[in-house]
């Protein structure tokens, strides 16, 4: 269905479409809050962590553009995007189930690769489905609702170890065994991922192509053979505003892995004086890392209610820049405190930055990308976040001790500086011309 004739959807139609994102993000939240401690329980050193985190960006770089290109040319009895996010959720839930129970580091790493491959298979179709089904006027709201789901899923995942502590689940560890508070959090994750994915699958009806027989004939036998030509064509024809967006992605997503790799460890190190897994307070300190992530996501959730209106009023690039600047100040402010509550306050500022990161670029992409190629461009936008993450993970381990002083809090300060650079670069993005061209092309296709 062309964007120009897409009907206005009810709140609950958009909600049902986005609800599966809650479970996917619960899975991501589990790994972001707990994976570095799990690696260290299995004997990994701090300077090895970036390399062990490579699964996320590598699978994202390879899978999301491929899934976008394939799903653009696919139509099944279940829809275009829905089969991909359902299979991703099913496979990801298996990896979540076993990750905290396997006895060796290499097994954890292997399951991490499977989990991220599955989650990336599921995530891109959720993004593209909003572009497929939601008209231009409602897109900021729909992507803001996805931000709400991201925040909600990651809040629950981040708080699960603390919730387990509240109910008396053991946090005891000898420095080599994973505590029960982490294990049970992952078991809950399986349930959340499956329920939310099946809900969106059952409650959402995708729009078929306008001439479905012509669509099938055009793409018969070409789905796989057209992947590379489609990717190359999309890169060559990429709108200027998305090329400008790349530079913002480069600096912000070089910094963001530092947060996932070192935030929990920084809290254990500086707030609980527990720099190693065998130190007293390490398990509790890393659990409070989950609390910090929860505060960040609560802030993001609150900001998501206002971000659509502020974009309509002030423009996407200005909102993006302000969010990144506030987030950068949050990271840098952590240098000034060893108090848990002040650290949580800093993470509230980071939550504003995260709201911009996970919302504004996708609104930009949906508005400027050609309607028939929205899946592949959503995949490429996600690929933009993967390359800088790979660069970070291959390089930070080499300078962690020499440049960052072996201190996880200094890694967070570097992330803050990169966010400020990204804020300046965001002001250069101008989507107005590309969005006008895209809208005119859609209207012309509609008349044809």
Walk me through what this model shows.
With 448 residues, this protein is an all-alpha fold. It has one domain (3-447): MFS general substrate transporter like domains (Growth Hormone, Chain: A, Up-down Bundle), CATH 1.20.1250.20. The chain is 76% helix and 0% strand. The chain has 16 helices and no strands. It has helices at residues 11-41, 49-52, 55-72, 82-98, 105-133, 139-166, 180-203, 212-219, 227-236, 240-270, 282-314, 316-333, 340-368, 374-399, 408-426, 432-447. Helix 1 (11-41) packs antiparallel against helix 5 (105-133), helix 4 runs antiparallel to helix 5 (105-133) and helix 10 (240-270) runs antiparallel to helix 13. The longest helix is centred in the middle third of the chain and has 33 residues, at 282-314.
Strand content bin: under 5%
Shape summary: globular
- CATH domain class: Mainly Alpha
Succession of helices and strands: HHHHHHHHHHHHHHHH
Task: Give the topology, please.
Layout: H1 11-41, H2 49-52, H3 55-72, H4 82-98, H5 105-133, H6 139-166, H7 180-203, H8 212-219, H9 227-236, H10 240-270, H11 282-314, H12 316-333, H13 340-368, H14 374-399, H15 408-426, H16 432-447
Helix pairs in contact: 1-4, 1-5, 1-6, 1-7, 1-10, 1-11, 3-5, 3-14, 4-5, 4-7, 5-14, 6-7, 6-11, 6-13, 10-11, 10-13, 10-14, 10-15, 11-12, 11-13, 12-13, 12-15, 13-14
């Amino acid at each position: 269905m062309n964007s120009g004739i897409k009907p206005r959807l009810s709140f609950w139609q958009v909600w049902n479409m986005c609800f599966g994102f809650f479970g996917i993000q619960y899975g991501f939240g589990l790994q972001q809050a707990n994976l570095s401690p799990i690696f260290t329980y299995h004997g990994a050193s701090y300077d090895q962590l970036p390399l062990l985190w490579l699964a996320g960006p590598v699978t994202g770089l390879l899978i999301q553009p491929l899934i976008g290109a394939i799903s653009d040319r696919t139509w099944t009895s279940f829809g275009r995007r829905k089969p991909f996010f359902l299979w991703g959720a099913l496979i990801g839930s298996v990896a979540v189930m076993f990750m905290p129970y396997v006895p060796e580091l290499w097994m954890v790493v292997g399951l991490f690769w499977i989990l991220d491959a599955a989650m990336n298979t599921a995530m891109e179709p959720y993004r593209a489905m909003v572009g497929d089904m939601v008209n231009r006027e409602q897109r900021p709201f729909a992507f803001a609702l996805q931000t709400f789901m991201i925040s909600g899923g990651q809040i629950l995942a981040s708080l699960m170890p603390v919730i387990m502590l509240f109910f008396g689940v053991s946090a005891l560890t000898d420095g080599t065994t994973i505590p029960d508070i982490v294990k049970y959090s992952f078991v809950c994750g399986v349930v959340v991922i499956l329920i939310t994915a099946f809900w969106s699958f059952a409650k959402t009806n995708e729009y078929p192509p306008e001439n479905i027989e012509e669509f099938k004939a055009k793409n018969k036998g070409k789905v796989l053979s057209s992947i590379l030509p489609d990717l190359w064509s999309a890169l060559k024809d990429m709108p200027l505003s998305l090329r400008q967006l790349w530079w913002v992605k480069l600096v912000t997503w070089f910094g963001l892995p530092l947060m996932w790799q070192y935030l929990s460890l920084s809290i254990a190190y500086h707030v609980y004086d527990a720099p190693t897994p065998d130190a007293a307070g390490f398990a509790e300190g890393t659990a409070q890392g989950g609390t910090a992530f929860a505060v960040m996501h609560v802030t993001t959730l609150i900001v998501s209610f206002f971000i659509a209106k502020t974009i309509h009023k002030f423009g996407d690039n200005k909102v993006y820049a302000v969010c990144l600047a506030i987030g950068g100040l949050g990271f840098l402010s952590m240098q000034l405190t060893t108090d848990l509550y002040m650290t949580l306050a800093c993470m509230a500022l980071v939550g504003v930055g995260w709201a911009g990161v996970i919302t504004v670029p996708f609104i930009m992409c949906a508005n400027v990308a050609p309607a028939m190629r929205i899946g592949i461009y959503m995949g490429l936008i996600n690929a933009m976040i993967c390359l800088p993450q790979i660069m970070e993970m291959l390089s930070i381990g080499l300078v962690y001790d020499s440049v960052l002083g072996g201190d996880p809090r200094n890694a967070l300060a570097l992330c803050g500086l990169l966010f400020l650079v990204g804020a300046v670069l965001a002001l250069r993005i101008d989507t107005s011309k590309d969005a006008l061209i895209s809208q005119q092309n859609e209207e012309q296709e509609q008349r044809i």
